[in-house]
Amino acid sequence: MKTIARLPVLAAAILALGVWSTSAPPALADDKAAFSDSQKQALDDLIRDYIMRHPEVIMESLQSMQQREQMAQQRLQAERVAALGEAIERDPGDPVLGNPDGDVTLVEFFDYQCGYCKRMLEPLINFANADGNLRIVMKEFPILGPESMIAARASLAAAKQGKYEAFHTALMGLRGRLSEPAIFQTALEVGLDTERLRKDMESPEVTDQIRKARELGEALSVRGTPAFIIDGTIVPGAISEDRLADLVAQARAKG
Question: What are the chain's domains?
Answer without folding.
Answer: 2-71 (no CATH), 86-254 (3.40.30.10)
